[in-house]
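Budget justification aside, the reviewers requested a transparent look at the raw inputs and outputs of the sequence design task funded under Objective 1. We therefore reproduce one unedited record. The lines immediately below are the C-alpha cells for a 119-residue chain.
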C-alpha cells in the first residue's frame, strides 16, 4: 500500500521523531541542499553519512545518543532525495520534494507517526 505525503519538509527534524518511535531504521539515498548555508556541524554529519553510503549503500541511523543532533537541528533545507526504511514496516521516499510512504507490513500500526512528518 502506498501513500503520498503532501507536505513541504524543510528540515530533517522528523528523523529524531522516527528515531524515538522505531528501534532502528536505515537511510539509503540521501541528497539535500541548503537554501542559504549549512552550519559546519551539519555539513560534517551530512558528509559522513554520504561517505558511509558510498561504502555500504545503506546506513543505520542511531538516535540513542546525541551524535545526530546537528543533522536534525538544521533548518531551511531542500530535501532532494531521501530513502528511509526499517525493512519490516515502512519505506519512506522523497524524490525532488515529492514524498511517498510504502507500507511493507499490513499490520503496521504506527502509520500516523510516519505520515505526521514535518509537524
Amino acid at each position: 500500500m502506498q501513500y503520498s505525503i503532501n507536505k513541504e519538509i524543510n528540515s530533517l527534524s522528523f528523523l529524531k521523531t522516527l528515531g524515538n518511535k522505531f528501534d532502528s531504521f536505515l537511510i539509503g539515498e540521501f541528497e539535500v541542499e541548503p537554501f542559504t548555508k549549512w552550519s559546519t556541524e551539519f555539513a560534517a554529519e551530512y558528509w559522513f553519512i554520504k561517505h558511509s553510503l558510498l561504502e555500504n549503500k545503506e546506513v543505520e541511523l542511531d538516535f540513542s545518543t546525541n551524535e545526530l543532533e546537528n543533522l536534525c537541528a538544521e533548518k531551511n533545507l531542500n530535501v532532494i532525495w531521501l530513502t528511509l526504511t526499517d525493512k519490516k514496516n515502512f519505506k519512506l521516499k522523497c524524490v525532488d520534494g515529492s514524498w511517498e510512504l510504502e507500507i511493507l507490513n499490513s499490520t503496521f500500526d504506527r502509520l500516523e507517526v510516519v505520515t505526521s512528518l514535518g509537524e
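The chain has a mean pLDDT of 86. Residues 13 and 72 are 4 Å apart (CA to CA). Computational costs for records of this kind are itemized in the attached budget.
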